[in-house]
Amino acid sequence: MNTSNHRAKRVLLYPLAAAVIMSAALIPSAPLAVSAAQADTALSAPAPADSRGSSVSGNRTAGNQQQPSLSRVAVIIDDFGNSMRGTEEMFKLPVKITVAVMPFLRSSEQDARRAHELGFDVLVHLPMEPRQGKPEWLGPGAVLTSMNDVEVRQRVEAALDNVPYAIGINNHMGSKVTGDERVMGIVLEVCKERGLFFVDSHTNYRSVAGRMARELGMPPVENHIFLDDVHSASHVAKQMKLVQERALSQKFCVTIGHVGIQGKETAAGIRSGIAGLKDKVQFVGISDLVREEWKWNSRLTLP
After folding, report:
1. Which of 165, 182, 202, 234 has the most neighbouring CB atoms within 10 Å?
2. Helix and strand numbers, DSSP H then E, in the chain
3. What is the dihedral of CA 205, 210, 215, 217, to 10 degrees?
């Protein structure tokens, strides 16, 4: 991962705290100000067929067949669920994305349903305790290391029940939890029981999530590149070139961007970057990648 990704989520603003507090207090007009995942300063990185398909070119051409010989890119967009800036622009991107929805916010269910209707995969963007930072930055329903086993399980199950069509979980912040074997073990157990998988957002380079997932016979999925560690469309477009390089050299790449204060800029950078990847990679949902790369056969059946 390039140097900027090691600074991922260190450099963003902290107005998030107030916005999350307002959301948690059930003030419906208070959007999250910025990705709480990006306030985590402890960094040490089948859906219905739709018109986007898994188009290599990124065009909305119906009937395109997947071409496994091409390198695959899974773009995950975090922090849906509170009508944040950039939401509309992300939904209108001309390629398949994966929508990570925070639970218990004013548009959590609405965003998940819309994503599913568009043919996008849905993840629960589960708030998890960071090593540094205030717990209120996390938003409602966060998993904390101080909780006992029953409490952790209840939090995970409640979040999954709150976000319809979820096929997996990825962590929102979470540098402390993803380094905790006891808590991560419970999170992964719930995923496995429900036929889901866990995507490590990689906010902790000493995360135990991948190793523990392998031990449980689950796919060790993790983020490789943060797109918007610097807030400009030009930087995101530059990061998309790194995504291409990683995908071509390693056969696939998982990358994460965000809605939020700079959500429109992130969407613009992704859209610009898509043009440069035309006919070079295949944009897929995270479930497509997990099925193809790790031969994951989920028991999950969506309506």
Report:
1. 202
2. 10, 9
3. 180
Q: Which two tokens stand for residue 88?
A: 């509309």
Rounded Cα distance between 155 and 152, Å, is 5
Contacts of 123 (CB under 8 A, 6+ apart): 76, 98, 99, 100, 101, 166, 167, 168, 169, 170, 199, 286
Tell me: the pLDDT tens digits for 31-89?
Answer: 343 444 455 533 333 333 344 544 333 333 333 444 457 999 999 999 999 999 999 99
Q: What does the pLDDT look like over 248-259, one tens digit per residue?
A: 999 999 999 999
Q: Where are the beta strands (DSSP E) in 90-216?
A: 98-101, 121-128, 166-173, 197-200
| Contact status, residue 198 vs residue 228, Cβ threshold 8 Å | no
Q: Is the pTM of this model over 0.85?
A: no
User: Ramachandran region of residue 203, left (φ > 0), alpha (ψ -120 to 50) or beta?
Assistant: alpha
